[in-house]
Amino acid sequence: MKYSTIKEKIDLIKSKKISLVENVKFFLARIEEKKKLNAFNFVFEQDAISRAIEIEKKIISGKHGRLAGAVVAIKDVLALKNYPLTCSSKILRNFYSIYTATAVQKLIDEDAIIIGKTNCDEFAMGSSNENSYFGIVLNPYDESRVPGGSSGGSAVAVAADLCDFSIGTDTGGSIRQPAAFCGLFGLKPTYGRVSRYGLTAFASSFDTIGPFAKNIDDIALVLNVISGKDSKDSTSVNYPVPDYIEALNEKKKFRIGLPKEYFTEGLDNEIKIAIDNQIEKLSLEGHQIEEVSLPMTEYTIATYYILTTAEASSNLARYDGARYGYRSENSTNLEDMYLNSRSEGFGSEVKRRIMLGTYVLSSGYYDAYYRKAQKVRRLIKEDFDKVFNKVDLLITPTTPTVAFKIGEKYENPLEMYLSDIYTTSANLAGIPAINIPIAKNKDGLPIGMQVIAQQFSEEKLISFSTNFKY
Description:
Order of helices and strands: HHEHEHEHEHEEHHEHEHHHHEHHEEH
Distance between the termini: 17 Å
Helix content: 25-40%
Radius of gyration: 21 Å
Structural class: alpha/beta
Number of strands: 11
CATH architecture: Alpha-Beta Complex
Strand order of the largest sheet: 1-3-2-4-6-5-10-11-9-7-8
Strand content: 5-15%
Largest sheet: 11 strands, mixed
Shape: globular
CATH superfamily: Amidase signature (AS) domain
């Protein structure tokens, strides 16, 4: 690669030092070479080359968008008109989208080139990318290990140099955790900052769309493009979008909180040492560090899995074999068709979450579980509000361990759910968070550090991230 950022790439194309068409062909050859990683569900080879020819002319003429020629892979839960939208599920294996997601359209409008759609856990439900109808995604650092989930394919596409950047979704850590396992920057924006229109819903009050990249400059640029109010999404917020590129040049000293509840038993010692080293360095550079408390932390996993499964149960009721998607051939009546289509079409993890969600919403259990979890969610948000009165940012681990072995947690759902112990709280509170790659362990596996900010304070995360040239 002759460039390190999208901006640098555009300048090189403009001066004819690199050919965009050859660059796209390089990525296509690389995708073929690294096919075993299984990062892509679909690759748009001819479309990408045709678009490269068109955009190269725009760049040379000087009439181009902010992402001109940037090659992007998008998670296969985001709609792209006339292309497959499978959510890595058998139930949608032959479904083609009839419209394009707002975030994806914004990339296209700024002259990005979509090279394909990435593999993920089915309906974005998972922490390892082992739940896909299209098979397991492998970690490029060690192919016997998972890349993280649910946006594992998007993370691997960037980490293995199959594209310039990628787009994933984060419902409980599904951008940050794969970013940590694959050594990338991965940003989950504030809920409402990026339109969810065209994102296939898992848990509608949690789902967010965000970027993966190898550097913070590209994260800032992509966030500039995809952020903003969208009339097609009632949950997108009409709140000013700052220029995140400017935040890259702001050299601020931050007040940083270390939540004591995140540095307890269960955290891998090498991860703890790596974060401690960074904290010491930040302190020497003049950042103010103090211990803080988020007392509701112990309830985050339980609250998260009650509320997200309830929303999943409701959202996935539409996949019934009647209107679109997979329909079972083994049915003699309508009820059997519903039952068999869903039983045959959904994978085991999706079925587990639908059953959990249906249970917590059922008569007699709604007050005991769902309503109580909603109240706890509010208390978790209040915890963060109080802490952000004292500090600008919070530093925590992103994951309790480095990337684990394929199959290691697959048979133990509870252990798998605990992989998200440090990330779910930001989704419950609707606040932004980023994974920053900070080190590698003794086996050469990436270690990530999570930084969390108050609502609509992504510019602080971007400014802070410039301290790390990993």
